[in-house]
Amino acid sequence: MKKYLFLFLWALLGCQQQQASQGTKKMAIIVSTLNNPWFVFLAEKAAAKAQSLGYETKIFDSQNNTALETDHFENAIVSGYQAILFNPTDSDGSVSNVLKAKDAGIPVFCMDREVNNPAAATAQILSDSFSGSVAIASYFVKQLHKKGKYVEILGLVGDNNTWARSKGFHSVVDNYPQLEMVAQQSADFDRNKAMEVMESILQAHPNIDAVFCGNDAMAMGAYQALAGVGKAKQVKVFGFDGADDVVTAIKDGKITATGMQFPQTMAEMAAVFADQYLKGKRDFAQKIPVAVELVNAATIEDYTAFGKK
Q: Which residues are 149's β-sheet partners?
């Protein structure tokens, strides 16, 4: 009899816990990596805004691994999260995860990176990487006086931002035949990989004039490699993000320029849109661009890490 009473109480407790869980408002924040301060900032701002709107939150780190990202989506679905604020690992590889959430009735709002299926995410809030890189490239051309040898360090090849930044950059720079790209290589948006890539490139091309990097972490890695061989003052380094260390490095004359993204804007917009969706709104634009601004020595005092002062 005691055994059956115990089982009954256990089942009743489980039922109560399930009912409590169903009454809890929760948003999951799934990001490509927390091994980069920019994405940490994005995730934390998304979580903070969702919490201010009355939601419990949890941040999931995909570690740039689509398989781990899949695990996080499955966890979010079975754990009763009502919405997912998402920074994809791979523009193609992440589509199936978004569709899986959609099939489960869970809206997904992409932040900064997109997935290559317009029917998957409820909305995608994205930096205007192409236009931002056009602005950087115009400044790049002026700084090099329209001639010289340069290196391009790409981000993750599976991320659309990588190619949007590269295409925006080349849409300007390729119009100047005396600007010669001597090497183009991926470093996965990673600082240490960028340092290694730059070290390797410098062995083959020791006399370069500039480096354009697809994000600020790689710009700092490239700068470290250049400093290691005494070339930091001769070679101009350009980044993209607006990260804390690069803002400081521009002030110190170490980095020439970057493109300032606004991760707080994207994160908070995603949280607000998710809240509106859960309250009944359905008419969201599929893509919402967020402007990127050129930051250099002349404008640096107007900016702080990840945004304007």
A: 180
Bridge partners (DSSP) listed for residue 289? 126
Torsion of CA 162, 163, 167, 168, to 10 degrees: -40
**Which amino acid belongs to residue 250?**
I
Beta strand 123-127 pairing with 287-290: parallel
Q: What's the distance, CA 134 to chain centroid?
A: 19
Q: Which helix (H) or strand (E) holds 287?
A: strand 287-290
Q: CB within 8 A of 252, min separation 6: which ones?
A: none
The pLDDT tens digits of the residues spanning 154-167 come to 999 999 999 999 99
Comparing CA positions, the residue from 267, 95, 306, 259 lying closest to residue 165 is 259
Does the pTM surpass 0.85? The reply is yes
Instruction: Determine contact, residues 226/243, Cβ cutoff 8 Å.
Output: no
Contact 296, 236 (CB under 8 A): no
